[in-house]
């Protein structure tokens, strides 16, 4: 299966750089709407057979133009929602609590899955719910699937499950709004990341994606 992990379009909370993970969450900014509208053309080379979105408003709005372009319904699944910030919700991302949030997210990807976000979920709970949606997509028989999800969730899950993406790489490369990580593989055999925001991903330990810059997250 070819798996496209797509971060949602820009939201007001992205502009204000706040931790915003609760359901249903905000909609898109005007820029976010334009980003969502541009996704079908950006992914025109992909023969997408299924489009999933999380239960948050911003992913469903982002997924809608892409699904419509392929004559598909958006399949809404709670399992690919953003990692809950728990007690850190609504705090500035560029602060000690924000840094704690990201440290916990990447600690999970490094295998410390029993750690729990303050007032939120554990790594085990996050990976199980995200894995379940990926497994559903794989079992559907669709050859290329787009999952419209969230920045921290995509980076953590990819670092945990992609054979060639390690935690230092995922931590050093934020994913911009509507940025895409493309993977190939299956839940049983594992996944290999092919590109990260359009840049080729080299094997872990060999310097990251082709020396090409990746825009910081909004």
From TrEMBL:
Xref: Gene3D superfamilies: Phosphoglycerate mutase-like (3.40.50.1240)
- Organism encoding this protein: Streptomyces phaeoluteigriseus
Output the superkingdom of the source species: Bacteria
User: Record's SUPFAM superfamilies?
Assistant: Phosphoglycerate mutase-like
Enumerate the InterPro entries for this protein.
His_Pase_superF_clade-1 (IPR013078), His_PPase_superfam (IPR029033), PG/BPGM_mutase_AS (IPR001345), PGM_Phosphatase (IPR050275)
List the CDD domains.
Answer: HP_PGM_like
The record ties this protein, via SMART domains, to:
PGAM (SM00855)
Entry's PROSITE patterns? PG_MUTASE
Q: What is this protein called?
A: Histidine phosphatase family protein
């Amino acid at each position: 299966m070819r798996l496209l992990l797509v971060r949602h379009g820009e939201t007001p909370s992205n502009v204000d750089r706040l931790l915003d993970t609760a359901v249903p969450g905000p909609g898109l900014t005007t820029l976010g709407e334009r980003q969502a509208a541009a996704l079908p053309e950006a992914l025109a080379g992909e023969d997408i057979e299924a489009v999933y979105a999380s239960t948050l408003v911003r992913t469903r709005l982002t997924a809608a133009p892409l699904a419509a372009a392929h004559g598909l319904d958006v399949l809404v699944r709670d399992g690919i929602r953003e990692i809950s910030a728990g007690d850190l919700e609504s705090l500035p991302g560029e602060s000690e609590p924000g840094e704690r949030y990201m440290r916990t997210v990447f600690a999970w990807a490094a295998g410390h899955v029993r750690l729990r976000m303050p007032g939120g979920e554990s790594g085990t709970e996050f990976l199980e719910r995200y894995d379940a949606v990926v497994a559903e997509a794989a079992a559907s028989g669709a050859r290329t699937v787009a999952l419209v999800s969230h920045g921290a969730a995509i980076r953590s899950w990819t670092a945990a499950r992609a054979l060639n993406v390690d935690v230092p790489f995922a931590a050093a490369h934020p994913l911009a709004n509507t940025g895409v990580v493309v993977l190939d593989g299956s839940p049983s055999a594992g996944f290999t990341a092919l590109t990260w925001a359009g840049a080729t991903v080299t094997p872990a330990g060999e310097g990251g994606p082709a020396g090409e810059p990746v825009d910081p997250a909004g």
